[in-house]
């Protein structure tokens, strides 16, 4: 049985997405994958292809780079959803010059109203040095606030390091 909400946090290439996928696969349920990334170059395309190759016919993919509310509201209660990832979603919001406070509040409301169990993946960006430019500092601060809000909303919060889950909140199913 999956928790109502799961927040999966980790650094770049930490194994967080694959761990989140495996959590849903272990439930033996069909699932929805909400993909927030946009492909801007061949390097990103390769990374997306790797993610796609791990998902079989049990997965239904929806591209949702900005507005997660409508797809989350339309999901049946028996079909868990994986949102990968909050960091790309936030980047997209910033590229669109969105009001980040409003966008975050809308996302949190959509998660609260989501019928099936949800898992959202995000990057931990606060472990490095202070960025040297204003945009990167703004992003780091916004990502930190978003991660705090997502962790507060989740029943289970996991930090993935080297592919290994470290439970921050709740208990693994």
Helix content, binned percent: 40-55%
Structural class: alpha/beta
Helical run tally: 6
Spans of 5+ residues with little confidence (pLDDT < 50)?
none
Strands ordered across the widest β-sheet = 3-2-4-5-1-6-7
Supply Rg: 15 Å
- Write down how many β-strands occur, each being a DSSP E stretch of 2 or more residues: 7
Question: Proportion of β residues?
Answer: 15-25%
* Overall geometry: globular
Note the run of SSEs as H and E: EHEHEHEHHEHEE
Mean pLDDT, nearest integer?
A: 95
Main beta sheet, described? 7 strands, mixed
Name the assembly state: single chain
**Distance separating the two termini:** 6 Å
Give your account of this protein's structure:
This protein is of the alpha/beta class. It has helices spanning 16-26, 42-53, 69-73, 86-95, 100-113, 134-153; strands at 5-10, 31-35, 59-63, 81-84, 118-123, 156-161, 164-169. The longest helix has 20 residues, at 134-153. The chain is globular and about 45 Å long. The termini are close together.
């Amino acid at each position: 049985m999956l928790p109502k909400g799961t927040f999966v946090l980790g650094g770049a290439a930490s194994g967080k997405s694959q761990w989140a996928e495996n959590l849903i696969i272990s439930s033996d349920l069909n699932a929805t994958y909400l993909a927030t990334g946009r492909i801007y170059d061949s390097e990103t395309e390769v990374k997306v292809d790797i993610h796609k190759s791990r998902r079989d016919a049990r997965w239904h993919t929806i591209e949702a780079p900005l507005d997660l509310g409508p797809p989350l509201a339309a999901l049946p209660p028996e079909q868990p959803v994986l949102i990968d990832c909050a960091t790309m979603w936030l980047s997209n919001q910033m590229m669109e010059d969105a009001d980040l406070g409003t966008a975050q509040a809308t996302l949190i409301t959509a998660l609260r109203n989501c019928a099936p169990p949800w898992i959202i993946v995000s990057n931990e960006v606060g472990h490095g040095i202070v960025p040297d430019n204003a945009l990167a500092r703004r992003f780091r601060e916004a990502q930190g606030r978003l991660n705090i809000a997502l962790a507060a909303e989740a029943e289970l919060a996991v930090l993935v390091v080297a592919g290994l889950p470290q439970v921050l909140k709740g208990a693994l199913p």
